[in-house]
């Protein structure tokens, strides 16, 4: 074929158009011939696989078979079967997640903790000590258990039982923690106890609390607008329609009123209504032991005044260390020497402790 005729044939082939159906048919025929060729080759070599495994295949033929095995996965699999080799089983992807039961336990633990947190108040009440909350130590006048009837000395007061004093009455209760509760006339209250705290729910009237040292939690007085809690002290609470007044005779009391918390010391008051503010003396004047409370208050005030009169240490204006400072150093500070003042205050406290104690309310 001349070069011109070849060029013309190539140009004719380029210009020739083939439909998609004819192109797909040709592709299928090519794949069919290739597949049949592979099956025929495999059939030819598979007849010699036993000789190949046994080492009886001639050198040239062995080379041809090994070349075929390098390109044919079907024949390689057939050799593995003839040799009795274990088939390879594909492994599933390794899961790093925890087994479902672990998630269930974690969810249960979170749920349990949430229930304990939300129900902590109920649990605290449930774990409260059993038995009466108080015993009537003494009563003058009428003391009522609402609505059951009259209480006498030695009677018990249970959880959330409402008691009320009549006109002209005066009562002292001994709480389960050995605190003493002095109750004025026309006063209504109830007692509650939890594992970590004890509370007096004062609806109206006047009380004086001689709180014992609390081993666990605090003792508190709750009114409509005030909460007063202590660890161990003497304080008075009066409440009514006009508001609540807290007065401290001895120790300190944490008072919360209108979301504001203050700490009261001996001789201080806190009133939810400023019109109620007065003096500690007037707040406890209704008690038969008022003079004794005032004596305790006066003894504490005496020590405070004596300490306040102690001379304060003079300020240092010079120091022997200045000459050791490097040149150009201008920073200098000095702290007053409180050693003498502290020593004198300690001596005053010891003198007060050794003096005859102020009369205190005797045991009921």
Q: What fraction of residues sit in β-strands?
A: 15-25%
Structural class: alpha+beta
Report, as a whole number of angstroms, the end-to-end distance: 140 Å
Total number of β-strand segments? 16
Main sheet characteristics: 16 strands, mixed
Summarize the entry for a quick read.
This protein has 364 residues and is α+β, with helices and mostly antiparallel strands. The protein has helices at 3-15, 20-46, 49-54, 59-71, 73-83, 100-118, 120-126, 280-283, 290-309, 339-354, and strands at 134-140, 143-146, 149-150, 156-157, 162-165, 170-175, 180-183, 188-193, 197-210, 218-222, 226-230, 234-240, 243-250, 253-257, 260-264, 269-271.
Task: Describe the protein.
- This protein is of the alpha+beta class and 364 residues long.
- Helices cover 37% and strands 24% of the residues.
- It contains 10 helices and 16 strands.
- It has helices at 3-15, 20-46, 49-54, 59-71, 73-83, 100-118, 120-126, 280-283, 290-309, 339-354; strands at residues 134-140, 143-146, 149-150, 156-157, 162-165, 170-175, 180-183, 188-193, 197-210, 218-222, 226-230, 234-240, 243-250, 253-257, 260-264, 269-271.
- It has a 16-stranded mixed β-sheet that branches.
- The longest helix is centred in the first third of the chain and has 27 residues, at 20-46.
- The radius of gyration is 50 Å and the shape is elongated.
């Amino acid at each position: 074929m001349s070069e011109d005729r070849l060029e013309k044939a190539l140009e004719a082939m380029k210009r020739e158009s083939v439909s998609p159906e004819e192109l797909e048919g040709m592709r299928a025929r090519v794949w069919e011939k290739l597949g049949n060729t592979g099956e025929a080759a495999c059939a030819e070599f598979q007849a010699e696989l036993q000789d190949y495994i046994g080492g009886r295949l001639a050198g040239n033929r062995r080379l041809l078979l090994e070349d075929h095995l390098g390109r044919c996965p079907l024949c390689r699999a057939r050799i593995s079967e003839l040799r009795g080799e274990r088939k390879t089983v594909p492994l599933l992807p390794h899961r790093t997640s925890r087994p479902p039961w672990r998630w269930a336990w974690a969810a249960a633990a979170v749920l349990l903790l949430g229930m304990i947190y939300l129900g902590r108040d109920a649990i605290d009440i449930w774990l409260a000590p059993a038995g009466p909350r108080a015993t009537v130590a003494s009563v003058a006048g009428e003391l009522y258990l609402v609505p059951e009837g009259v209480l006498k000395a030695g009677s018990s007061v249970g959880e959330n039982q409402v008691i009320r004093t009549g006109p002209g009455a005066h009562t002292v209760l001994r709480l389960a923690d050995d605190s003493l509760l002095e109750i004025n006339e026309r006063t209504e209250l109830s007692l509650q106890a939890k594992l970590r705290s004890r509370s007096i729910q004062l609806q109206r009237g006047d009380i004086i609390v001689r709180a014992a040292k609390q081993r666990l939690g605090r003792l508190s007085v709750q009114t409509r607008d005030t909460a007063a809690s202590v660890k161990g002290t003497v304080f008075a609470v009066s409440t009514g329609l006009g508001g609540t007044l807290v007065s401290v005779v001895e120790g300190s009391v944490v008072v919360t009123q209108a979301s504001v918390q203050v700490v009261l010391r001996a001789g201080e008051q806190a009133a939810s209504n400023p019109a109620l503010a007065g003096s500690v003396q007037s707040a406890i004047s209704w008690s038969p032991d008022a003079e004794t409370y005032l004596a305790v208050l006066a003894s504490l005030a005496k020590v405070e005044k004596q300490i306040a009169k102690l001379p304060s240490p003079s300020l240092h204006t010079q120091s022997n260390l200045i000459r050791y400072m490097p040149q150009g150093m201008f920073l200098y500070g000095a702290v007053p020497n409180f050693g003498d003042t502290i020593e004198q205050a300690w001596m005053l406290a010891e003198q007060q402790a050794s003096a005859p104690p102020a009369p205190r309310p005797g045991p009921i």
